[in-house]
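Lab notebook, design round three. We kept the backbone fixed and only want residue identities now. Task for the bench partner: fill in a sequence for the structure below.
Input structure tokens:
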């Protein structure tokens, strides 16, 4: 049996896996929306229900949540908040976060002054909302006693900026009910931090008890179109209820979430970035999802609703929460809430990808350049697999040495494949050759390759990271395709070092393989191509050394 046939199959399997993965996300079957998935405003016992985008208090405790009628548009204002890492807009209607730019993360190296925009009400209907729901108390009217995200807040200023030397910036918004319940919604920003603290302080100046809950939700319109077929990553809902769960925006119409969770978090994630509401670990919240709008223009909501809190007349109660709007920085996310770092999704090979990133990050901290860190990591991986590779290359070298004898067998037995295979097996046994010995290193390295692919694709730390010369962003393709071409040349060199297949068709396929891989790798992140190129160079050096020694030994013998 020709030992190059499994190599060919494994190589093609790798390419087909990556093609299938990308195709399935684009054209795979999508769930059909369940009947009644679109939320509607209904009546209950003759009393109008709240707007569909405002969560109810439990029926057992409250008949209805307040209905906030939006005042005329001129009463709405937008408050701008600027820190060293965030440029935010807050709508006085609801105190919603309706725009969030990240000045330290430009869209591309060509446009350094254009920041990544996460929250974006106007284009993607992507906003972070929060508000209060009043629980109805027997004998007390709850109407108008809690501000939802439809209420109009008051703000003292139109712009807040974090000054030089200032480490904290507080932005208060106020709302007052007709019976004297005052709510102060305060956003707190800190220098160098993408985590925003949000407080609702309820001061009950009425003569009746106040009982209510807070809710927090993220709203997103249709999924944006993918930027690159090869660089596609998940965009959708993610949450943690004891374990990490994902749900694409398209799937939300057919699968609704409704469960009580202690701690946890809810989020919407995209490539490199996320927005997430993060309660404190001791809290119990009801997680929920909704789909509003029309099939042509859907709006997707994931939210959480807290347990009730009470403020007696003359007293105050405070609801607190945290909101992350920024990059998927693994160390920072892990420090905020357990499991939040899982939004950096390495897929089924996380058990390999996480240690690979840890080692890569450690090397980067030493050398200060992600490109050189990838090269050093490649060398370390090669050292780990050195013995396996040595066994493989010895097997290939022996195959190469006995190739003249194999050609003689082919000439002798012609088209009699059964006798030909028997003779080959006897030859392998006599020369102590394992025909499958060349496959194991490739089989072992494929999972490592895929894990590193996800590390380079998902880790925001490598986004727009330069190496040298023309490679100024290791997370995107080589702009001049130089690395893929060099990698293709190394594959041709490896082909020349390997024993040629006896089957002419296999010979042509093996000769074509470097060109096929060059085309595919031309669109992969430059960092991944750099890894494969350096790995090939090391493999060529090792294989050449072993082959030369075996050939010398054969001549002496």
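Proposed sequence:
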């Amino acid at each position: 049996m020709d030992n190059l046939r499994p190599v060919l199959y494994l190589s093609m399997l790798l390419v087909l896996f990556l093609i299938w993965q990308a195709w399935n996300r684009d054209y795979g079957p999508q769930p059909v929306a369940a009947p009644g998935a679109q939320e509607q405003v209904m009546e209950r016992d003759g009393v109008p229900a709240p707007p569909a985008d405002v969560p109810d208090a439990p029926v057992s405790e409250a008949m209805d949540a307040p209905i906030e009628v939006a005042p005329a548009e001129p009463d709405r204002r937008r408050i701008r908040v600027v820190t060293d890492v965030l440029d935010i807009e807050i709508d006085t209607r609801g105190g919603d976060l309706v725009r969030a730019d990240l000045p330290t993360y430009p869209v591309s190296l060509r446009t350094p002054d254009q920041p990544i925009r996460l929250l974006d009400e106007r284009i993607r209907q992507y906003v972070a909302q929060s508000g209060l729901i009043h629980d109805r108390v027997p004998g007390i009217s709850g109407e108008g006693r809690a501000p939802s995200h439809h209420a109009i807040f008051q703000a003292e200023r139109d712009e807040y900026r974090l000054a030089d030397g200032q480490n904290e910036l507080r932005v208060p918004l106020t709302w007052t009910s007709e019976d004297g319940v005052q709510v102060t919604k305060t956003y707190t920003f800190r220098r160098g931090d993408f985590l925003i603290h949000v407080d609702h302080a309820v001061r009950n100046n009425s003569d009746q008890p106040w009982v209510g809950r807070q809710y927090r939700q993220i709203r997103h319109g249709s999924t944006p179109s993918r930027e690159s077929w090869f660089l596609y990553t998940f965009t959708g809902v993610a949450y943690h209820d004891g374990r990490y769960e994902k749900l694409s925006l398209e799937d939300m119409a057919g699968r609704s979430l409704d469960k009580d969770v202690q701690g946890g978090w809810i989020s919407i994630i995209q490539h490199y970035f996320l927005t997430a509401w993060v309660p404190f670990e001791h809290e119990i919240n009801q997680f929920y999802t909704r789909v509003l709008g029309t099939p042509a223009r859907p709006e997707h909501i994931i939210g959480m609703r807290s347990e009730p809190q009470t403020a007696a007349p003359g007293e105050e109660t405070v609801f607190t929460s945290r909101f992350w709007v920024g990059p998927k920085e693994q160390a920072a996310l892990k420090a905020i809430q357990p499991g939040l770092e899982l939004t950096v999704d390495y897929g089924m090979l996380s058990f390999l990808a996480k240690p690979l990133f840890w080692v890569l990050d450690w090397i980067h901290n030493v050398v200060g350049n992600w490109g050189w860190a990838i090269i050093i990591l490649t060398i370390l991986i090669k050292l780990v697999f050195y013995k396996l590779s040595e066994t493989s290359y010895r097997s290939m070298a022996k195959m190469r040495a006995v190739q003249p004898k194999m050609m003689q067998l082919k000439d002798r037995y012609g088209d009699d494949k059964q006798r030909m295979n028997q003779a080959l097996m006897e030859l392998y046994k006599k020369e102590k050759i394992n025909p499958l010995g060349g496959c194991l290193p490739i089989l072992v390295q494929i999972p490592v390759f895929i894990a590193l692919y996800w590390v380079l694709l998902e880790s925001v730390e490598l986004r727009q990271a330069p190496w040298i010369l023309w490679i100024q962003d290791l997370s995107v393709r080589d702009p001049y395709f130089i690395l893929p071409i060099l990698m293709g040349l190394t594959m041709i060199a490896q082909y020349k070092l390997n024993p040629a297949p006896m089957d002419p068709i296999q010979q042509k396929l093996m000769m074509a393989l470097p060109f096929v891989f060059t085309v595919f790798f031309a669109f992969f992140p430059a960092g991944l191509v750099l890894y494969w190129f350096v790995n090939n160079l090391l493999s060529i050096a090792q294989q050449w050394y072993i082959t030369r020694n075996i050939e010398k030994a054969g001549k002496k013998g």
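Keep this in mind before ordering anything: DSSP finds twelve helices and 21 strands in the chain.
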